[in-house]
Amino acid sequence: MNLAFDLLLIAALLWSAGRALTTPDLFRAVVLFIVFGLLMALAWARLDAPDIALAEAAIGAGLTGALLLDALGHLRGPVRRKSGLIAPSTVMSSEGAGPPAFPTYFLNGLAIVLAVALGLALAGALLLLPEPAISLPREVAAAMDASGVAHPVTAVLLNFRGYDTLLEVAVLWLALLGVLAVAGGRAPGRAPVTPRSARASLKVPRLLARVLAPLALLVAGYLLWAGAHQPGGAFQAGAVLAAAAVLLNLAGLLPGGATPRWVLRAGLGFGLLVFLAVAAAVMGQGVLLQYPPAWAGALIMLIETGLTLSIGLTLAGLFLALSGASRQ
Amino acid sequence: MLDPLPWLILLPLFWATLAFVRGPGRGGRLAVAGLLLQLALAGGLARQVAGEGERVYAVGGWGAPLGIDLAVDGLSAVMLLLAQAVALPLAVYARAYYAAHEEGARYFWPLAGALLAAMNALFLAADVFNLYVTLELLGLAAVGLVAASGGAGPVTAALRYLMATLLGSGAYLLGVALLYGAYGSVSLSILAPLLGADAPLAVFLAAALMLLGLMLKTALFPFHFWLPPAHGGAPAPVSALLSALVVKASFYLILRLWLDLFAPLATVAAAQLLGLLGAAAILWGSLMALAQTRLKMLVAYSTVAQIGYLFLLFPLATDTGSVASASAIQGGVMQALSHGLAKAAMFAAAGTVILSLGRDDIARLGGVSSRLPLTLFTFALAGVTLMGLPPSGGFTAKWLLMSSAMHSGQWGWVVVMILGGLLAAAYVFKVLRQAFLPVEAGTQFKPVPRLLEWPAFLLALASLLLGLRAGEVLGLLGAG
Amino acid sequence: MSAGLLYALAGAALFAFGVAGLILRSHPLRKILAFNVMGSGAFLVLVGLGQRDGTADPVPQAMVLTGIVVSIAATALALALARRQREHGNDKEERDA
Amino acid sequence: MTMDLSALNQLLAVFLLANLVLALWRVTRGPTPADRLLAALLFGTTGVALLLLLAHAGGGMALVDVALVFALLAAITGTAFSLRAWRREEDDERP
Amino acid sequence: MSGLDWLSAIFLLVGAAFFLAGTVGLLRFPDVYTRLHALAKADNLGLGCIVIGLLFQADSLAAALKLVLVWLLALAASATVSFLVAHRAWRRGIAPWRADEPGIRRHDES
């Protein structure tokens, strides 16, 4: 029974991903990709990874989908300059759309053959893979009581491999920096003016946004608190917060904009600063990110709260910076 | 006193975040102060390694398989010194440069801080998945810096650069996934002893994927297509940072993986292939540089060429006896150091010329020798290192590589190196010749602040002094 | 053929799809979709291989959480660049027209 | 029939997944762009039901939280679909 | 299987039947408006029955209430999105299907 479910789900995953990359119509490609993201959440549920299913659902369905759909409105139409990665025109001449030096189909064919060969080689390699020498789950279980939390994934994320998470929060903050630098480069465009007729259709989403936004806040708080002993945590909570902000923006209740004032900048940097401060403070009596066992749980909760706020603001900022700066 | 190892990562993140919170365009003084402290820390760390040898730092106190380890040995200490030594003068240069370009400076300092934090974290990391996160942090920071000026050219170049670096990171990540599947750990110190020549197919695939991903990020020929528009189109301080440091980080990673993790899998055939690609990069990059009409594109293609020298060390160091391989590795690292310093100086000098002249086509550089003597001298000094003339660091590097080639009887690489040196001379003198022509009618030279010319000169001088003090640096390299 | 290995094989196929898509397609939005598919494939291989014996392994799951946040960051930056590139294209068109 | 409840949940989960895939195929093939918007609806109902069944078929109560997030976010993707992606006229030349 | 389990099984099967009805409706109906009926009505009812069926299996009141909350949320989302889709389809000029003129027509042209 499980096998039937897995095989059907994998077939759906491969179908939706394949169609998303091959269908000529861009809107259908984005829809198929969002379907792929949601099917991935089901796959993570099947792989006993509820934390990832939560993150994939909140980030895949909520944010990536909204970002892509919002961008779709601006990116339709033919591509003027051939910006293919290894498309012949870029390999031979550095100025973009020069005449392709040798026929494109030769290169496309080569790329497809290479991709298929890679896929087959990977499949073969995976099937012949021996059992791993080290079993990390045993190590995690052994060290769980000293980690300060009850849920293994949160323990790995915030304590055992907390340094990865510190750098990853910096990556997210950095992406927003890049988006602000690019999108905010000029005066933000007028807020998207919705014609009177469309405004009538905004009444319903406004009602929904007013109901769902506080509920999303509640769910985010629940996920943050739950992270200590069951799947949840800062990323999923932050993503739900950001999804609420996206809904408010879509309903016209929250303005976009790519030039945050200092209060918002402080909020955006807050999570990273808290993490850095805790990482540095604990060095007083130990190594980087070595929480004193008695305080581990409290410190992790403090960091997670700061992260939820900053990740929520940053993920929302990624959407709002783009939607606010769009010229209608 | 501060333990240099963790603070080299935390410090740049601190001042980058503070610069962001203080608002667009702010953070210049903060950055220079931070970098001064970082240079001191890097020096302290180098002395520690020279004294006590390699040092492992278990983050969170958990130790190898469970937690993440940071490790510093001679190679990483040297690269850390290079990163801080190039970044400090460039920070001073950038403050003067952006005094004239208000628009471009909006988020330069937070992005540059994040870039440096990523560099330091990468040089110190000893965990393959942690290396993936640092590579991603480095890639996004570099793309952000290229695109920050917002012009049409840089944005297109940044998008292509981002796609190339994401393809590289994806391949690297799949390699990490295969390694974890095969051995159950991602820590270098745990994986290295487990990996033997009899490794399963998946490990060979992982090695190929990881190295291919990193070659894409190092812009080794034929994956160099994204570098010239990105480094050529970006503002001068950004191009200097990228050409001098960012491509070196992924090269350092290839060297680290080739020497430590994948040593048993490293076949002579693969090494020869890397050598051939390096040779092709030298010839192709130099020829394209010679053909360029715009100054910064010439310097960008020169980067593509000089990266080729770095990859010559692989055929010279694989199964060629301990003496030849040691000298080849020292030559490669010395080339990375001297090129880092010289290329930063050259891009900075080019930036000064363009800022003063208002245009960047090589044919109309007349009068630069009389109006901007120090900048032209800096450009020439940096050219000396690129050409590999004594007593510059470039000469020491090429000499070590050549002696290794002669020792192991691979004469082909010697010919390539000599050809590369001649071509480098060609494109450097092409610029110098134009600069000595009389001033073109009707061109005004905007006055240039001193703080713009002296940091570039300092960098060029350092690339020269590196040649004279090579013994000390190579000693540190051997220590770890 | 445990569930973990099955999903790892699916991940390998998705990775191949993603790489082919990233190289072949020229529209920036399609490259972004391809990059995300490639990332999901790599994550499936990472978790799938870690759980070939059926027991949930928290370490690759934490790594994939980190990876998902990294890929949304990269996707957002790529979208911002693509939109800015299109706006420059439109400006050039208005100037040419 | 000695079928206990969790086996029934598992069986229904497979049945719902088949339903979902069939419906998704039809929706994404649908002629007008409006049909494709229905995909968001599908996940709001079938996806949530599927997760609830999996949760009670041994997948663990955490999947109920995932279903909660699914339901919460189904509205967002659907709203984003209809409000933002579908503003340009040329969508209709190919109904 | 105790009495409660039978009750739960019955509700689950009824719910599945409604989902089947929704999918068949989606496949058979000719235009977007009718398909909205299939999806919005049948599937939500199916979800409701499944939630009720699972209520019997819930081990605590909190878990049961959470299930009901999920259902209410799904209803709210489904209602909003159905309205928006139908509204946008009409604004875009897609005419409802008519037996005498099958095929996709525009109502603002005729």
Strand content of chain D: under 5%
Gap between N and C termini of chain B, in Å?
23 Å
Percent of residues of chain B in helical segments?
Answer: over 70%
Shape of chain B: globular
- Number of E strands of chain D: 0
Beta-strand content bin of chain B: under 5%
Strand order of the largest sheet of chain B: 1-2
Topology pattern of chain D, helix = H, strand = E: HHH
Enumerate how many helices of chain B there are, as a single number: 20
Oligomer: heteropentamer
What is the helical fraction of chain D, as a range of percent? over 70%
Q: Structural class, from helix and strand content of chain B?
A: mainly alpha
- The total beta strand count of chain B reads 2
CA gyration radius of chain D, whole angstroms: 16 Å
Average predicted confidence as pLDDT of chain D: 80
- How many helical stretches of chain D? 3
Query: What is the overall silhouette of chain D?
Result: flat
Low-confidence segments of chain D, given as residue ranges, are 89-95
Summarize the helix and strand pattern of chain B as letters. Answer: HHEEHHHHHHHHHHHHHHHHHH
Give the domain tally of chain D: 1
Keywords:
heteropentamer, A: 328 residues, mainly alpha, 71% helix, D: 95 residues, 3 helices, 80% helix, flat, disordered C terminus
Descriptive account of the structure:
The complex is a heteropentamer of chains A (328), B (480), C (97), D (95) and E (110). Chain B has 480 residues and is mainly alpha-helical. Chain B has helices at residues 4-22, 28-52, 74-100, 108-124, 128-147, 152-183, 188-194, 201-218, 227-233, 236-261, 268-291, 295-311, 313-317, 321-357, 368-371, 373-387, 393-407, 411-435, 450-468, 470-479, and strands at 55-59, 68-72. Chain B has 20 helices and two strands. Chain B is globular. Chain C is mainly α and 97 residues long. The termini of chain C are far apart. Chain D is mainly α and 95 residues long. Chain D is built from three helices and no strands. Chain D has helices at residues 5-29, 33-59, 62-85. In chain D, helix 1 runs antiparallel to helix 2 (33-59) and helix 2 (33-59) runs antiparallel to helix 3 (62-85). Chain D starts with a helix and ends in a 10-residue tail after the last helix. Mean pLDDT of chain D is 80; it is low at 89-95. Chain E is an all-alpha fold and 110 residues long. Chain E has one domain. In chain E, 75% of the residues lie in helices and 0% in strands. The radius of gyration of chain E is 18 Å and the shape is elongated. The mean pLDDT of chain E is 86. Chains in contact: A-B, A-C, A-D, A-E, B-C, D-E. At the A-C interface, helix 1, helix 2, helix 3, helix 5 and helix 6 of A face helix 1, helix 2 and helix 3 of C.
